[in-house]
Design goal:
Elements (H helix, E strand, L loop, with lengths): L1 H24 L9 E3 H4 L5 E5 L7 H9 L8 H15 L5 H10 L11 E5 L6 E6 H11 L5
Parallel strand pairs: 1-3
Antiparallel strand pairs: 2-4, 3-4
Length: 149
C-alpha cells in the first residue's frame, strides 16, 4: 500500500497543479497572433522557445496544422503551394514580411496566443515555433495571481 501511495502521489500532484494552472490561466486572455522573425527575437534574453513540439518533413504544413484556426486549415495547402513557388523562384524561404503577406493573401489565421507569446518564423528553415517573453509572462502571472516556478 505504501508503495502505491508513493507512486501515485507525485502523479496526483502534477494533475492538481495542471488543473490549477488551467483554471487560473483563463484569467490571462488570448490576443490575436503576432508573427516575428525568430532569429531576431531570440537575441533578446527574455525571449525563449516555448513550443517546439511540431516536427516533420514539411515544417510549414506540420506547424500550420497545429497552430492555425480551424477555418483556415483548408487554406494551408494553398499557402504551402505559394511558399513552394516562392522558394522555387527565389531559391530561398520567404522572409518574415513575405510570409506574413502570403498568410494574408491566402486568408490563413493563426490561433490567438497569450499576450506574452508570439509565433516565431525562421526564414532559413521555414519553421514556425511559439516564442515566449519570460519577463512579460511573469508580470501577467503575478497580476493574475498565478504562482510561477
Amino acid at each position: 500500500m505504501g508503495a502505491v501511495v508513493r507512486k501515485t502521489l507525485p502523479v496526483f500532484g502534477i494533475i492538481v497543479w495542471s488543473l490549477f494552472l488551467h483554471t487560473y490561466a483563463a484569467d490571462i486572455p488570448k490576443v490575436p497572433a503576432n508573427i516575428v522573425d525568430s532569429a531576431k527575437a531570440l537575441k533578446d534574453p527574455n525571449i525563449i522557445v516555448a513550443d517546439q513540439k511540431i516536427r516533420g518533413n514539411d515544417p510549414l504544413s506540420q506547424a500550420a496544422s497545429a497552430y492555425v484556426t480551424v477555418r483556415s486549415r483548408a487554406k494551408v495547402l494553398n499557402l504551402k503551394h505559394a511558399v513552394d513557388l516562392q522558394k522555387a523562384l527565389h531559391g530561398k524561404q520567404p522572409t518574415v514580411e513575405e510570409f506574413v503577406q502570403l498568410l494574408k493573401e491566402h486568408g490563413v489565421e493563426f490561433n490567438p496566443l497569450r499576450p506574452f507569446q508570439m509565433y516565431g518564423y525562421d526564414e532559413k528553415t521555414g519553421t514556425i515555433t511559439i516564442l515566449e517573453n519570460t519577463k512579460e509572462k511573469a508580470a501577467h502571472y503575478k497580476k493574475a495571481g498565478i504562482p510561477t516556478d
